[in-house]
Each structure stands twice: as structure tokens, then as C-alpha cells.
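Proteins fold reproducibly. Next comes an illustrative record:
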Amino acid sequence: MPRQARDKSASGIYHIMMRGINRQDIFHDDEDYSRFLLTLQNYREKSGYEIYAYCLMDNHVHLLLKVGNEPLEQIMRRICGSFVYWYNAKYERIGNLFQDRFKSEVVENDSYFLTVLRYIHQNPLKAGIATSIEHYQWSSMGEYINKPQLVDVGFALGLFGASKGKAVEKIIQFCKAANDDQCLEMQDRQGLTDKEAGQIIKEVCQVENPLELQRLDKVTRNKYLKELKEGYRLSIRQIERLTGVNRGVVLKV
């Protein structure tokens, strides 16, 4: 069966997840973690991508990345190929390290960008391997608090205001807030892809782009949201992701 083509992000921003084959550990010591970050650093200029967030867990990796000179598939081939070559040499092994191909989802509005940013940074907390997001060594949260080395922090901080100091405080508070964020769910309960769900939203709401739902008056917007949830059974997360309407709003209608 042919693989389904990836959705292409109009913004160029993607949330990416890579998991170890058979869910086995990818990182065994500090050198492994550091080498993966060095690999990201080495290919950043060549491939022209920007990294907004990352989190390295024992057996999987999350990235929030914007493509540049090269398409996403080529970027990931470079990163994975280089790291696996080094890893196999270190541990005297052969074969694949990552499970199948990487997973990705498009990120096309500020609301979902921030949802993904928080989801990535809360991974260690929700997995029970850290007591606070600020103190987990292998995520990008430290780069937002201290001096950035790999991550472009300007874009995310800009969403919280012009003052860098206050923006840092706000982004920390946001990323620490309790939530039930679930990302990289590319299909809803009926197995609809984002592309298919987006087409339903455009037809039901009579818009050319799902993001236009944000600009409708409150009564009309809520009527459409209710119809999408109850009549078409689109998931709350998928509606939020595609329309940019706050999750709390979608839940309430």
C-alpha cells in the first residue's frame, strides 16, 4: 500500500516526532543527547531551517521547525542519517534506529504554534522524569530562559509582547499551565486527515480558508463550531488546529 503524502504547511512550520524502533531508547548517556543537538546545529545553516522548540526524551524526539532552503523530507534525511551513522559506530551496531518514517503535522496559526510549543516542553513533566519544565536539561525551555544557542526564540517571545523580560516570564507561565494538549493527531475519530477536515470546514462555514472562522461574529462562529462537532464529529483538537479558534471556545459551544 502506498504511503499517504504528507500535508504541506503554508507557513513552513511543522511539529515533528521521531521514535526509536520498537520504542527502544535512542539516548543512553549525555554524549548521545549532546550529539543529536550538535547534529541539529550542524545542518541548520546548510538546510536553512529554524528551530523554535525541541525536547529529547529517552526513546523519542519532538521538534518544532520551520523549513528553509530544503524540503522537510530532505532535512530529516540529513539529520537522521548523520546521527544514526554516528550512533551505530559508537555502539557497534547496524540497521535502523528510528521507527519507520518520522511523523509530522502542519502548524499554520499562532494558537496552534503555542499549543505545540507547550506540549513539547511539558513532555518530561507528563512523563514523570522532571519536576519542572525549567530544569529538564534536554529541552529548549532553557534557551528561552537563558542565552539561546540552537533555538530561534524571537518568534515565540514576540507573541507574548515587545518586552523581552516580560515575554520570558509569560512564556514560562504559559508552558507551565495545566492542560490536556494532545498533538500530532493527524486524524480525527472518523479517520479524517487535516486536508479532508479542512474541506468540510470550508464547505460548512462557507469560507475559503478555515482560519477565516476566527473573523466571523460570535453567534455565527459558534453555530458553525457546534455543527462541526456534533453534525460532522470533527475532534476538538482538529477544529482548533485548523481554525485557530481557542480550544476553550470550541469546548464550550
